Amino acid sequence: MQAETRSTVLARLLIDLPVTLAAWGYYIFAFLLFFAPFYAGAFFCPHRRQAFQWLNHLYCRGLFGLLRLIAPRQHWQIDARLEGSKGAVVLCNHLSYLDPLLLMAKMRTCTTVVKARFFLLPIFGWVLKSAGYLPSSTEGRFSGLMLKQMEGLQVYLAEGGNLFIFPEGTRSRSGEPAVLQRGALKLARLTKAPLAVFRLDNTHILFPPGRFLFNASRRNTIRISYVASILPEDALYQGPVTQLEKHLSALLTGTNY
């Protein structure tokens, strides 16, 4: 037990800590020193939303490119259908803060729902608004923002953009999909776009909820697997949201209902 404790401490010092510092260093300083001028220029672009989403895509690709380089014990199995997705609402379980960044790294044009309080942060909130992201709340000051971001969403999806949603609303602590939020499913159906269901596995092992350190010393395989599609003409799409909720829960957990 003592040897295991020592080896764990050593792994954290020699692997986990350097990987964590490098990842957070990229996340902060790559934005401030390299990407910030491009975001400022994108503000004047006639297609501002697409420009910001493309920059977010490049920024996140850089982060995971770095992680692949400095954390070789992490293996990645990403279904190509995610990167090839166009004009869909991607529904996925949620395990780690890495999840939205990984989806943005794989989809060049995508928008999503973000916790409303993040829109109040300086600079970061401005980037979220400019990229067309939607606030999670419609109360108070966020009601106008939600209406503005929803305008043209169907056109955006018809032109090949994607909206990804974590219908659990928060990260799962157990690693298994939690109860789905019906409001998120109603929003997904309002778009009238196909629903593409994917399952994420093991991002929480690399970056567990509530921890600062990455768990890069542990061997791990991060997967994004395609599960199913639900089309607007399907009865399930048009039926009671409770039925859709049960169906999605079964798909994400691999059970029958």
Question: What would your notes on this structure say?
Answer:
Helix 1 (2-42) packs antiparallel against helix 2 (48-70) and helix 2 crosses helix 4 (98-106). The relative contact order is 0.15. The chain has eleven helices and seven strands. A seven-stranded mixed beta sheet has the order 1-7-6-2-5-3-4, with helices on both faces. The N and C termini lie far apart (43 Å). The longest helix is centred in the first third of the chain and has 41 residues, at 2-42. The chain is globular, with a radius of gyration of 19 Å. The chain has 257 residues and is an alpha/beta fold. It has one domain: Glycerol-3-phosphate (1)-acyltransferase (3-Layer(aba) Sandwich). 50% of the residues lie in helices and 15% in strands.
